[in-house]
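Lab notebook: predicted structure, single chain.

Context: the supervisor wants predicted structures on file for every construct in the current expression panel, including those that have not yet been purified. This is the next one on the list. No modifications to the sequence; it matches the entry in the shared construct table.
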Amino acid sequence: MKRALPRTFEELGGLRARGIVRVSTKKQGENSGPMVQRRAAVEFAAQWGLDLPAVPDADPGREGFDGAFYTDFVSGSKASRRPEFQRMISDAELGEFKVLLVYEPSRFARERREAAIYEQRLHEAGVVVAYIETHDLSSADQQVGQAVHAALSHEFLTLHGGKIQKAYRERRYELGKWSGTVPIGYRMSYETVYNRAKGGSELVETGMLVPDTEPQPRIGFGETYTRADLVRLIGETYASGRLGFRPLAAHMNLLGYRNTLGEPFSGNAIRVIVSNPVYVGRLGWHKRPDKERKAHNFHDAEWKRGEHVPIWGESLWEGILAARRRAFRGSNGGKLHNVYPFRRLAVCDRCGANLYGESHRRAAGHEPVLYMACTTQRERHDCDQRAVRSTQLEDQVGEWLATLVIPADWRTDIERLQRREAQIQRPAVDTARIERKLANLRELFAEADITRDEYVGRKRALVASLNGGVSQPTYSEAVLVRAARLLAALGELWSKATSAERAEIAASLFAEVRVRDDEIVRARLAHPDYLPLIASARARSLVGVARPEGFEPPTT
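Prediction complete. Output recorded below exactly as produced.
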């Protein structure tokens, strides 16, 4: 039977405990640095009788796990970017401890929603989180205090982002110091500084990058390597021009190399590495207005010569740039070289993943062939959906539009559908109320506050309600009139449109198209009011737009 989680500090006595320490940098501040967090956890454990392992000669300035504390020196915005935090979660699920000691809520997670997700995972593993400064347990009934502290922490992160960026530029970049997550192949250097306020010495970062020469095991080879040498190898291999991003990632993985989290490389990780001028000795500053945006666009950065030791020489860097120019097919920085009309609209009907556009090169002098491919299939998962030519989907929509005929009496069809829906319920008609609405409608039209199309549509609905004794739903006739005119001409427009113009037409017509094999099997319209209109139409070809329930166009 699963043991109930402790709800008071008195119930913590004798339980195995571990602590977590997080600071963005080792020089976090006077009140929440690594030494302060560790000391508070040790004192808390002693006060409440927790079994927190003693670690002789512990180094508060070192990342990793020392037997008692998981220490991360990275931003706390996303827990997924904190390797020791993820290691803590894994150990908790293996039953290594029962209480996690955290200095205060922002050291656990910045966002309350994210904190709740990881707290729940810990609870399912039988682990309770003790927040020392706020005197809270994650299992306690009084969760309001924790939510307030987390909300204030997130508000601080959001509102003061601009001030923090300005301070980092003045105190870091302009002084030649590194800011942000240290790239693979480097590590941060530290110095020992005596802190009078804390009554002891602690390691603080110097802002200077040094090559990471710590031995790492090559998986499956019984050998070791250093990450600095690995980055050099990646640069040299890519500069040779033999392998692109994803093939090079697969090659590194087969040779037993891993990233800083101990996981296999992805093609995107290789792209980031070979695009980063830091490895050739430069120091960059690139403002990110949206802190949650994780795109690595090094072209928008401001660069200058740094004081750290470069891993690549200038000649190797030129070779990497030349290889990138030769292999460059797509876009960088938002410039679309190939336009896909169903980009952001096409979805795989098998797995529900988005379809992305990719171009296949032909011989010199020929245009590339554009495909829409399933992202799940691309990532070598189980989806059977193969890439389909974009022209096949375009031709299907073009044939549908070319044969789409909007009947002259489409209004009658739609009103018939609305009457059928209204038959479900027949409320009493308030004649006086409808008369007042008609009078108001006439005034609006007389004062030119509404268009004639809108006036006619709303009047017809009100008169139908008055005469038929059934309250009729009001459709937006002004919208449908414009849509009917547009649909009548779309077939010709589509046949003559460029790819960019087709993309605009598709975006205005569809909210989503679902693709199976080489055709569109279902579609969701961009405007719900279009559905009765299109259901009233006739076409030889279909794109999976389902008719409204109970709607049958009149037979001829």
